Amino acid sequence: xxxxxxxxxxxxxxxxxxxxxxxxxxxxxxxxxxxxxxxxxxxxxxxxxxxxxxxxxxxxxxxxxxxxxxxxxxxxxxxxxxxxxxxxxxxxxxxxxxxxxxxxxxxxxxxxxxxxxxxxxxxxxxxxxxxxxxxxxxxxxxxxxxxxxxxxxxxxxxxxxxxxxxxxxxxxxxxxxxxxxxxxxxxxxxxxxxxxxxxxxxxxxxxxxxxxxxxxxxxxxxxxxxxxxxxxxxxxxxxxxxxxxxxxxxxxxxxxxxxxxxxxxxxxxxxxxxxxxxxxxxxxxxxxxx
Length: 290
Ligand code: SF4
What we know:
- It is built from 10 helices and 12 strands.
- It is of the alpha/beta class and 290 residues long.
- A 4-stranded parallel sheet has the order 1-12-10-11, with helices on both faces. A 4-stranded parallel sheet has the order 3-2-4-5. A 4-stranded parallel sheet has the order 7-6-8-9, sandwiched between helices.
- The longest helix is centred in the N-terminal third of the chain and has 16 residues, at 17-32.
- Bound molecules: iron/sulfur cluster.
- Iron/sulfur cluster binds next to helix 1, helix 4 and helix 8.
- Iron/sulfur cluster binds at residues 16-19, 77, 101, 103-104, 172-173, 200, 202-203, 271.
């Protein structure tokens, strides 16, 4: 008798705390604000299936660059810029539901506090990411900057005779390795360095568990939106360890040939992948022959 197929699902697969909170707030909005027009500033999360489900109950995304129609406006977990938040608060025809993740909010506060105290604020992150646009907006434009690698640290900091005062933090989804590398380089600069590790453990935990599963399994499935940066990162990391790694958005993307002869199949999913999408994939795998 051939052994049954084993399916290993990462404990960390699926919604993180901040995404769960934002989606719950969006799902509850039609009941809480009956009769109001309800919109999210940009897609609430990077998952088209969830965004479509919300649209069906009347919660629709609007472009960040457009002034929202009167009604209820939900701020997503990435947060928004200080200026946009101020402008929205000035509008009496809007009710704001702030779903900014508390971890992102804390990072925004650190930028504001350090900048006000005269520190040069260095943020490790993707310059075009909405979370980073929000973070940088809380600092003084003259002394707040975003860097993506050690090479972006201004050379003047290393050469300066005057002691520097630097505050270092990161976009919540950055890699810990990169943060450590940049913090170590900054330690050689004359002056004061304050390090704030604002990287969210939801991201690092998901990545290390996917890597472990990729080493244990014959095949890996990573479930999540193609526009989800953290899902794509999970896929890349898993693929490095297990070449038979596939990125799918839904059960429809699965190809039975991938699993032919595979005994152990690992599953992980991005922080914006809902549980029902994971369940559908598990169910289909369970029904197919090893
Ligand atoms: S990854 Fe972390 S910081 Fe980002 S929304 Fe999820 S819990 Fe919040």
